[in-house]
């Protein structure tokens, strides 16, 4: 509580300042200090319904062959009661609890106790100790970047088991999917609640905490910016990357193994999902140091949104295509398969090149070449909470001259490709593209609000130079 009382006045002091001629609030870079009714209503809705949404999707695949309508029809026509569905739902088992505990503990060991060695022999890979971006309080955190190594070790062990040791079946994840859901929820809630308590009583960096005074908002969006235990266990980096994203490719492999077991073959659609999402996951770990400069790490506080989201939402809903394909094995025609592959690869190319251009530009402070030329940019300034003035640059060259978030456009193209592998019989596999469109459009708006608060009139000059957000000439 002391930290709370100590922090809030300094935040309020800063809120009264003006910057860059804008009337917006100085150093309000992250989430809103004052919670409007719409944000509060959305948060309460998500806290209440997000776990149910995940359950509904997974249950519909378990009991209704991935039809989202059939459970509703059954319930509305009185054909079934909620208790019928609930009674058919697999319960938490000791086996799942043991598996999940072992899984998370193994990832903790890989994260905390095995310093990165990949950067010593992989040319171009930035692993080992890396610095994050400067926080609003002026802190620069150091991170041990060893996600690629954790991913490689985990997958080598997975394949060694599948092809040589046979300690467990590669379908183990699919076979325990709902019992594991309960474990993931338990961890998600424990982590988020712990983060809230830690924010109040023993924050890692008190000056970077954010209190809105609204319990639900603080629980959901987080108080602490970069909660840590000890020097290296960073909650944001660990929970987003490790149990969630390392698991993503393993979950897909387990789905492919289940197809093989059930139908004696793996369909080309399942291979496409594994390959395209595998590229996305590997890209994430290859560029983990770059991830330190993304909104998740640079601007979001750690609460239920990231804690529960990383444990439950991401592994369960980002992998719906594979789950769907176990229930509905789709064999695509060659032309369709090639078309989807091209869409996915072009989307990935745009996503990667756009992100790389900004990263290169920021790392070299503009002393680089973008598409063979010196980049153009807008000079801008901002203040950190200690009153220090900093300078930055917003690039207007390359894909960043086409639209202000062309990286999101590439991401959306890739997301659409995953969904298209599943054909058009059901809406469930399209959840991902619908969700990503909402997430990334909302992110555009949220990020631009923050950037305007940070850079003031310099941000306006930038938006005048690059008028579109996602699609040049349209939005
Ligand atoms: P960005 O990487 O686009 O980062 C936005 C930040 O970059 C801004 O806040 C600003 O920060 C800086 N910036 C903005 N414009 C410029 C410019 N013209 N020149 C230089 N710097 C600029 O956003 P995200 O962190 O949201 O996304 C990173 C990637 O992750 C994206 O490709 C996105 O698609 C992906 N993603 C994927 C998700 C998933 O669930 N699969 C979820 C979220 C993101 P500053 O304050 O430093 O100026």
UniProtKB/TrEMBL annotation:
The keyword Endoplasmic reticulum applies. Keywords: Cholesterol biosynthesis, Cholesterol metabolism, Endoplasmic reticulum, Lipid biosynthesis, Lipid metabolism, Membrane, NADP, Oxidoreductase, Steroid biosynthesis, Steroid metabolism, Sterol biosynthesis, Sterol metabolism, Transmembrane, Transmembrane helix. GO terms for cellular component: endoplasmic reticulum membrane. This is 7-dehydrocholesterol reductase. Pathway: Steroid biosynthesis; cholesterol biosynthesis. Its EC number is 1.3.1.21. GO terms for biological process: brassinosteroid biosynthetic process; cholesterol biosynthetic process. It is a multi-pass membrane protein. The keyword Oxidoreductase applies. The gene is DHCR7.
């Amino acid at each position: 509580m002391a930290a709370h009382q100590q922090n809030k006045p300094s935040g309020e002091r800063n809120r009264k300042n003006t910057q860059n001629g804008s009337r917006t609030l100085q150093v309000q870079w992250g989430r809103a200090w004052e919670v409007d009714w719409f944000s509060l209503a959305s948060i309460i809705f998500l806290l209440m319904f997000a776990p149910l949404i995940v359950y509904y999707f997974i249950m519909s695949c378990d009991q209704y062959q991935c039809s989202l309508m059939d459970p509703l029809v059954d319930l509305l026509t009185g054909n079934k009661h909620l208790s019928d569905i609930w009674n058919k739902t697999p319960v938490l088992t000791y086996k799942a609890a043991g598996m999940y505990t072992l899984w998370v503990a193994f990832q903790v060991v890989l994260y905390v106790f095995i310093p990165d060695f990949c950067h010593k022999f992989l040319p171009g890979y930035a692993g080992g100790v890396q610095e994050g971006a400067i926080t609003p309080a002026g802190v620069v955190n150091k991170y041990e970047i060893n996600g690629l190594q954790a991913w490689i070790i985990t997958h080598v062990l997975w394949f060694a088991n599948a092809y040589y040791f046979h300690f467990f079946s590669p379908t183990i994840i699919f076979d325990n999917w709902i019992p594991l859901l309960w474990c993931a929820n338990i961890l998600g809630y424990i982590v988020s609640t712990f983060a809230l308590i830690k924010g109040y009583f023993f924050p890692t960096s008190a000056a970077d905490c954010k209190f809105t005074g609204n319990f639900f908002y603080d629980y959901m969006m987080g108080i602490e910016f970069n909660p840590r235990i000890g020097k290296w266990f960073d909650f944001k980096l660990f929970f987003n990357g490790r149990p969630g994203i390392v698991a993503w490719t393993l979950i897909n492999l387990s789905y492919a193994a289940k197809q093989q077991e059930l139908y004696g073959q793996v369909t080309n659609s399942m291979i496409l999902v594994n390959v395209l999402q595998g590229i996305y996951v590997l890209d994430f770990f290859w560029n983990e140091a770059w991830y330190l400069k993304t909104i998740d790490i640079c601007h979001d506080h750690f609460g239920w949104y990231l804690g529960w989201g990383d444990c439950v939402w991401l592994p369960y809903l980002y992998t719906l295509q594979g789950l769907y394909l176990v229930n509905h094995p789709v064999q695509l025609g060659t032309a369709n398969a090639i078309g989807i592959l091209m869409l996915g690869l072009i989307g990935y190319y745009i996503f990667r090149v756009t992100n790389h251009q900004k990263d290169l530009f920021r790392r070299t402070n503009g002393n680089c070449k973008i598409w063979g030329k010196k980049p153009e940019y807008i000079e801008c300034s901002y203040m950190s909470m200690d009153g220090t003035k900093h300078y930055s640059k917003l690039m207007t060259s390359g894909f960043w001259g086409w639209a202000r978030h062309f990286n999101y456009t590439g991401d959306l193209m890739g997301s659409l490709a995953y969904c298209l592998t599943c054909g058009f019989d059901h809406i469930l596999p399209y959840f991902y593209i619908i969700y990503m469109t909402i997430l990334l459009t909302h992110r555009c708006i949220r990020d631009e609000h923050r950037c305007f608060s940070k850079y003031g009139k310099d941000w306006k000059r930038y938006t005048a130079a690059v008028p579109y957000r996602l699609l040049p000439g349209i939005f």
